[in-house]
Write a structure and sequence with these properties.
alpha/beta; Rossmann fold; 35% helix; 23% strand; Arc Repressor Mutant, subunit A; two-stranded antiparallel ribbon; 9-stranded mixed beta sheet; 15 strands; 324 residues
Length: 324
């Protein structure tokens, strides 16, 4: 074993982080992406990231480092073709695919079947100059089923081949399904939480709570790197993901629009906050913030003392309401 000093480490690697896709994916690091099956959009998000890396383009406001990609997918050829087409990757010769069915013939022996898959994938990535290895999904390829998926020991053992691949200078992205009961970032991944402790960045992709359009997603993160934001709200617009900001900053403008629409449905509408909750579908805390903003802008006024038999009611400011 070779020991080195801190000074020697920084002389060997002057830049502490070599980002492939800042601030989500770095060389010599493993990123875990968790989300609910078929609703969070994990593969859509991962392929959008891959598209940017393949071209060296922008992803969520940062320039990526152009590179080739090796992608291990549990999907069939038919469904993955559709996903690649949506991502605009169908013509790429730098995006290399290994289907899960190609690993069926491998049997556990002195080297486990999963370790053999990773070993060959890493060697293939190095031979073809790939910067990124994606495993979609981890449990499927590592054969973590039943009790194994919940075993900390089995999860940590399954992570070892990927950690060796990481140490070869490759950026590794591992995708996991979220458990049924969900949970916060770092504990929502299906199976043992030991895996999340073995990676460098954990991302949780989910639909945000509150007033959001169907294309909005919230990313919560835990990271060993300061550059990774703890929370972002993004949206898929014209086939590309864009950062919208913090969740509340995104939800409140949407809530304001819904309040005005509800108050415009009937002339001289006077609605209580409870009635507005029903009419807009906006949670009360977000609704209160939206109403406060609308009042400060003069778009909405309120009446009533808030006492018994005299509830606070909201209405459009007649001077601000456009003529039909």
């Amino acid at each position: 074993m070779k020991f080195i000093t801190a000074k020697e480490l920084f002389e060997l690697k002057p830049e502490p982080v070599e980002w492939v896709c800042k601030p989500w994916l770095a060389r010599e690091a493993i990123t875990e992406l968790d989300g609910a099956p078929k609703s969070a959009g994990k593969t859509t998000f991962a392929l959008a990231m891959c598209k940017a890396i393949l071209t060296g383009g922008d992803f969520l406001g940062y320039q990526t480092a152009k590179g080739r990609i090796v992608y291990l997918t549990e999907e069939s050829g038919t469904s993955f073709r559709a996903a690649l087409a949506r991502a605009g990757i169908e013509e790429s010769e730098d995006f290399h695919i290994l289907f899960w069915k190609e690993t069926h013939g491998l049997r556990d022996g002195e080297t486990s079947a999963w370790a053999k898959v990773v070993e060959e994938a890493v060697e293939y990535a190095k031979t073809h100059g790939a910067a990124v290895l994606v495993v979609d999904t981890f449990a499927q390829f590592a054969k973590l089923t039943g009790d194994k998926e919940n075993s900390a020991g089995d999860n940590l053992e399954a992570m070892l081949p990927l950690q060796k691949g990481r140490d070869e200078g490759i950026a590794v992205l591992v995708i996991r399904h979220e458990r049924k009961e969900g949970g916060g970032v770092g504990v929502s991944g299906r199976g043992s939480n030991a895996m999340s402790g073995a990676v460098d960045i954990v991302l949780q992709l989910k639909r945000p709570i509150g007033s959001h359009t169907p294309t909005h997603r919230k990313i919560e993160a835990l990271s060993r790197f300061d550059e990774t934001p703890s929370e972002s709200t993004i949206s898929l617009i014209d086939g590309e993901y864009r950062v919208l900001g913090e969740s509340d900053a995104v939800a409140i403008p949407v809530a304001m629009e819904r309040v005005l629409e509800a108050l415009d449905r009937e002339e001289s509408a006077n609605l209580t906050i409870k009635q507005l909750e029903t009419a807009t579908g906006v949670p009360r805390t977000t609704l209160q913030s939206a109403l406060k903003q609308l009042e400060s802008e003069g778009s909405v006024t309120r009446s009533g003392s808030g006492k018994k038999n005299d509830p606070v009611q909201y209405q459009r400011n007649a001077a601000e309401t456009p003529s039909p």
